[in-house]
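seq:
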Amino acid sequence: MALEPFCREIAAGYAPHLVELAIEPTLSVLVDRRMLQRTLNNLIDNALDYGAPPVLIRAESEANAVAISVEDPGEGEASVFKAAHANQGPLLPPAHQGLGLAIARGFCQRHGGDLELGHSPLGDGG
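struct:
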């Protein structure tokens, strides 16, 4: 599945300028579309609830994985989904474990990746 147009559709479901994209147009992933949409919506909603707009969906290719991050310029934690076939190491404990994060974590694990929570450079002013 082509990731950039898929994420553009998700971003269009929010008010203008709330969600921005930084995704290479040729990047593709093999995942369940419905579950990826639900996962991204949960992470975007979490960023909007506990962070600040605009939320940035970023995707980049890494060695044997595609890393999809949902970041915001607030002081909360950014969420990074890495879909990979290799074990990426232990998961970082979330600041709060809501149903949305549990769904996102399960989706990531079912696709051989993980969900990492950490601070985004956007929250540090850049």
